[in-house]
Write a structure and sequence with these properties.
mainly alpha, two-stranded antiparallel sheet, 12% strand, elongated
Length: 92
Amino acid sequence: MPWKLIVFLVVVGLILAFVGFNAANVSDVSFGFYRFDDVPIFISLFVAFFLGVLVTLPFTFRRRSTRARKQPKKEVGGDGARDENEPEHSQV
């Protein structure tokens, strides 16, 4: 059985246990102009988590794209020139 599937099933089991134990814990959520009454705590936590993920995603993708642009492409050729950053290999 693949490890990713096992980890996924364990995480889903933990989430379901968390939801089951906290279904009775409720609170009011107010946005200043509107108030939600008796919202389960686990829903508030999941919404906050997913909003954090949505806010972080653009920064992650922008960082990856700038790294890809900054790395110079290595030349493919046998002209004998070597990169200064590349370590020398001794021949035995």
